[in-house]
Design a protein that fits this description.
The protein is mainly beta. The protein is built from two helices and twelve strands. The protein has a domain of 170 residues. Strand 5 and strand 6 form a beta hairpin. It is elongated, with a radius of gyration of 39 Å.
């Protein structure tokens, strides 16, 4: 649900007379000082305190005031000629608006400045200590390889899932209620009040409300059941330090029938490692075969730690 905005009505701005010093004059209904007759200076308007606020009933907002080009008096948006000196108002400029004080927003902006500065500093330190590189020449001292084959076994296993996820071939399901997720339930609203200068001698008081929520659990059936599946039970490993990697021997057939207790060879993985200057790099098979033992190689290393940037091989 989006923010709800409602008007709480229009109120008069205040202004102080520049000529005689009379304070707290009304911005809409007192365009001249009642003490000395001086015209209102719209640039000196300000928001009243809560106890000074004077509501304008039935106010119809027509637009911001404009400065008379001849005498600088504030005139209503619909006026065609200045009511004080009679000059035409064609091309007259809008009066300047007043921003309501927002101390919370200012404090938040300052905090964000500190946060951004800290993030920049942390980023620089990470780059300087862990990312910065330099060129180096290292000697390939050894080639190593590791090949692994996973072994799967067909058996009856216990698994669990939500009721709508229980597979069709499951047997002996036992279910109980527990929380699966949650939903957000609206509990009310959090509201703030803002003052908006309409620049016609009035301000509008606006109430902005955002919904507040609480988390409510959603329960479902959690089920435990038994299924017959192939599952990894073991792995077989072969390793060496030569240039002739081989897969482990004496493996079960990959197409073994699905009978209880049967095993089969499943996934295969391989790792190729180059040793350079007392450090090691895991590389692709093509890169591993590209170099020979004793060959000097130009690589990038971390400037601070000296570790090899393996992608530079």
């Amino acid at each position: 649900m989006s923010e709800r905005v409602e008007s709480e009505g229009f109120y008069e701005m205040l202004w102080d007379c520049d000529h005689c010093g009379t304070k707290g004059l009304l911005g809409k209904s007192q365009r001249h000082c009642p003490e000395c007759g001086a015209p209102q200076n719209p640039d000196k308007r300000y928001f009243p305190s809560p106890e000074q606020q004077k509501r304008i009933e039935g106010h119809a907002y027509e637009g911001a005031d404009r400065h008379c080009p001849a005498c600088n008096a504030p005139m209503a948006a619909k006026a065609k000629n200045c009511a004080q000196c009679g000059a035409p108002l064609d091309g007259a400029k809008e009066v300047r608006g007043v921003l309501a004080p927002q101390p919370v927003a200012k404090k938040r902006r300052r905090i964000w400045l500190y946060v951004v500065a800290a993030l920049v500093l942390i980023g620089f330190l990470i780059w300087f200590l862990f990312v910065r590189t330099r060129d180096a020449q290292l000697t390939v001292s050894a080639h190593r390889w590791v090949r692994v084959v996973t072994i799967e076994k067909f058996g009856e296993y216990e698994e669990s899932a939500w009721r709508d996820q229980v597979p069709a071939d499951a047997t002996f399901p036992v279910c109980s209620r527990r929380q699966r997720s949650s939903r957000q339930v609206q509990t009310g609203e959090s509201c703030t009040t803002e003052k908006v200068d309409k620049k016609d001698g009035t301000f509008e008081q606006v109430r902005k409300c955002k919904p507040t929520y609480r988390s409510e659990p959603i329960d479902d059936d959690s089920c435990t059941f038994r299924v017959r599946r192939w599952k990894q039970s073991d792995s077989v490993r072969a390793a060496g330090s030569d240039l002739n990697p081989a897969w482990p021997a004496q493996l079960p057939a990959a197409d073994a029938p699905a009978t209880l207790g049967a095993t089969r060879a499943a996934g295969r993985s391989e790792t190729f490692i180059l040793e350079l200057g007392g450090k090691s790099c895991e590389v692709s098979a093509a890169t591993w075969r590209k170099y020979t033992d004793g060959q000097k190689v130009k690589v990038e290393v971390r400037a601070t730690t000296g570790s090899i940037v393996c992608s530079s091989l």
